[in-house]
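New here. Invent one.

***
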Amino acid sequence: MGNRKAPFTAKLLSEDELDELIEALKQIGFLKSVQKLKFVKHMYQDFSVLEAAEKTNTPPRTAYRWLKRWNDGGPNNLLW
């Protein structure tokens, strides 16, 4: 992990619930949603936005937008 403090990430689901949702979406082929939730999971683990973006092959600008959407309304706001 980098030395930059990760921005606030609302922990609206437990990591177990996040993992279950990722797995369910993966099974039905919602790969973009899986990518978004994996990004959130990395943020839960205190990675910086840039590190989490890199791990999920996401442009940084998009990653910041995803984080804002997650913090503003959780999974429903981020995924749909």
Notes: The chain has one domain: 15-75. The first helix runs from residue 15 to 27. Helices lie at 15-27, 31-44, 49-55, 60-79.
